[in-house]
Amino acid sequence: MMRTQLVSAGGVPGAAGIPVVCGNVTQGAEGILAASGHVTREAGAGTAVSGDVSGSVGETLGDVAALSEAAVEIRPARPGDEEGIRRFLGGLSPRTRALRFFAGMSRPSASFVRTLLAVDERRDALLAVRGNVLVGHAMSCRGEEVDVEIAVVVSDEWQGMGIGSRLIRTLMRRAEARGAVTVGMDVLGDNREVLSMVRGMWPEATMRASSGMVEVTAQVLR
């Protein structure tokens, strides 16, 4: 998982995933992404199967990806999403919460929820929604050492279906439209799934290890 701290959970010491930046707030390869100083990462899962089933597995993964593409809408956060984000946060597993916010979390405060959903000249927020259920969240915030810092998290049952990548790419398009050129994020050093995702999306990214974290700096995706 990947995480960034663009927001710190109100009343939650050491909020994980994204520190509080711009007010304060990514997870597994498709679960959580974190930004330098604030963002997400996704937990990976693996199953050993005896016998040659690579073809059927590939077809199944393709079917799942196509299903998520059709069933999940990526849209900007808007007024009225407060209760949805509260339910979303409450449904995350302890591991996913820790990867995204670097700590446990009690019921999120009203100010924390507003920060997660803020869309203004400094911040952006996207939601992945299936019907009326929120299954993913991404946010960006104007950075100090980079143009924008990002954070992403996807609900446990929807991880590994490409939703995190869709959120990131949409977030990057919107950031580029605002003039952003560079992006930053923080990833836990043992978060191999997210680090692998980052290398795949940003092969030229600069990565610097520090205190158990990997600080990633890259060019905004085009």
Describe this structure in words.
The chain is of the alpha+beta class. It has six helices and ten strands; from the N terminus they run E-E-E-H-E-H-H-H-E-E-E-H-E-H-E-E. The protein has helices spanning 54-71, 82-91, 94-101, 110-117, 163-177, 192-201, and strands spanning 27-28, 32-33, 41-42, 73-76, 123-130, 133-142, 148-154, 182-188, 206-210, 213-219. The protein is globular. Residues 1-32 and 34-62 have low confidence and may be disordered.
Radius of gyration computed on alpha carbons:
16 Å
| Helix run count | 6
Order of helices and strands: EEEHEHHHEEEHEHEE
Unreliable stretches (pLDDT < 50, length at least 5) are 1-32, 34-62
Shape: globular
Query: Can you give the helix content as a percent range?
Result: 25-40%
Would you tell me the structural class of the helices and strands?
alpha+beta
Number of strands: 10
Strand content: 15-25%
Average pLDDT metric: 74
Intertermini distance: 23 Å
Q: Assembly type of the shown chains?
A: single chain
Largest sheet: 8 strands, mixed
Question: Which features would summarize this protein structure in a list?
Answer:
222 residues; 6 helices; alpha+beta; two-stranded parallel ribbon; disordered N terminus; eight-stranded mixed β-sheet
